[in-house]
Amino acid sequence: MPVRLEGRLTRPDRPAAGDYCSIDRALQVVGTRSAMLLLREASYGTTRFDDFVHRVGITEAVASSRLRELVEAGLLERRPYREPGQRTRHEYVLSESGEDLVPTLLALADWGRKHAPKKGTPTFTHHDCGADVSVTLRCAAGHDLGTDELVVRG
Amino acid sequence: MPVRLEGRLTRPDRPAAGDYCSIDRALQVVGTRSAMLLLREASYGTTRFDDFVHRVGITEAVASSRLRELVEAGLLERRPYREPGQRTRHEYVLSESGEDLVPTLLALADWGRKHAPKKGTPTFTHHDCGADVSVTLRCAAGHDLGTDELVVRG
């Protein structure tokens, strides 16, 4: 069941949405698998370059340019650190903006668990009560809703 | 605030998650901007090849291979149709599996509206009451939760 459209979005000849669309604007920053997986790692507490490379399973070159893009876009903060006897290095810490990407990661996990199931997959649970966590569509008036109750007005 | 990790995920030398991670398995299917935007269009009711090309703003070659991948992965269904006097063509309709990607699209929209705001961006509202819609983390026991209450057990 498609969502309901209103306004300019209902015109058959509506042009490419581009920057006009908030989904597209987000994807211009995190529209690659490697960017998303680096953010997953950062939300899991990974901060160091070598750990990002190892835990995401990407090349150093890809990790380097993707981390730089995520820092420039404000999702990660780059901070200097120095271990005894070592030169200064930098670590990458999730910013508030990066943390706001966690619901997207969890929505992807919901899809992956349901439509590409695999035994032994990590679980997402609520610390306080232990119940499984997923994402829900919710309106500001407090109603949960399905896709077919969603109106997109352009 | 990172999420809380338990189990094997807490090991410093844990290997690249790969297929073991449900987020990654989802991204192996929808880990490109063009795939996500084609699914946005399909959820908005777009079914025809030319409309996908025009409304997403991608080349025919990219649209063609991406649509094929999404059909193969089961997110879109390819159906024949025929207009009077024309040859048979195919349209692409969101499957149940594709519809389950809508929360991910809305989570991206939440991020885009907050962190890359732009005037005139389409709104997402609840058909029944008109209130703004966003995604929420919710546990099976009915609690809403923040990222810092999320436990990932690997």
| Ends apart, CA distance between termini of chain A | 19 Å
How much strand of chain A?
A: 15-25%
Output the structural class of chain A. alpha+beta
Chain pair sharing the greatest interface? A-B, 93 and 93 residues
Tell me the series of helices and strands of chain A, N- to C-terminal.
EHHHHEEHHEEE
Helix content of chain A: 25-40%
- Across the major sheet of chain A, the strand order is 1-6
Tertiary shape of chain A:
globular
Tally of DSSP helical segments of chain A:
6
Low-confidence stretches of chain A: none
Say how many strands of chain A there are: 6
Q: What oligomeric assembly is this protein in?
A: homodimer
The gyration radius over C-alpha positions of chain A equals 19 Å
Mean pLDDT score of chain A, rounded?
94
| Major beta-sheet overview of chain A | 2 strands, parallel
Topology:
The structure is a homodimer of 154-residue chains.
Chain A: E1 4-6, H1 22-30, H2 33-43, H3 49-56, H4 60-72, E2 76-81, E3 89-94, H5 96-99, H6 102-115, E4 123-126, E5 133-139, E6 150-153
Compact summary:
Chain A has six helices and six strands. Chain A is of the alpha+beta class and 154 residues long.
Would you write up a description of this structure?
Chain A has 154 residues and is α+β, with helices and mostly antiparallel strands. Chain A is built from six helices and six strands; from the N terminus they run βααααββααβββ. Chain A has helices spanning 22-30, 33-43, 49-56, 60-72, 96-99, 102-115, and strands spanning 4-6, 76-81, 89-94, 123-126, 133-139, 150-153. In chain A, a hairpin with a 7-residue loop joins strand 2 and strand 3. Chains A and B meet through helix 1, helix 2, helix 3, helix 6 and strand 4 of A and helix 1, helix 2, helix 3, helix 6 and strand 4 of B. Strand 4 (123-126) of chain A pairs antiparallel with strand 6 of chain B.
